[in-house]
Amino acid sequence: MNIEQIKEELTMLEGHLLQLAIDETDGSIGGINNFLNSVIDEGFEEDYQVLVRLASEAKETVQHEIKYIKPFE
After folding, report:
1. pLDDT digit string (tens) for 7-42?
2. What's the CA angle centered on 19, arms 54 and 63, to 5 degrees?
């Protein structure tokens, strides 16, 4: 597996994590962030650094994309 394939896999996993956050919450930004924070906390507790990083990237994606869904700036 080359580096590009690994990047694609991580992007896909981030998308799955975001979809899980939406499905497991009310879909609000706060609910999604709370879900991702709990994933990060669990990742730290279990020493799953890849999961922590993946959830952190997902949170950054949510924060970056929120400007496109907010009705007013």
Report:
1. 999 999 999 999 999 999 998 889 999 999 999 999
2. 60
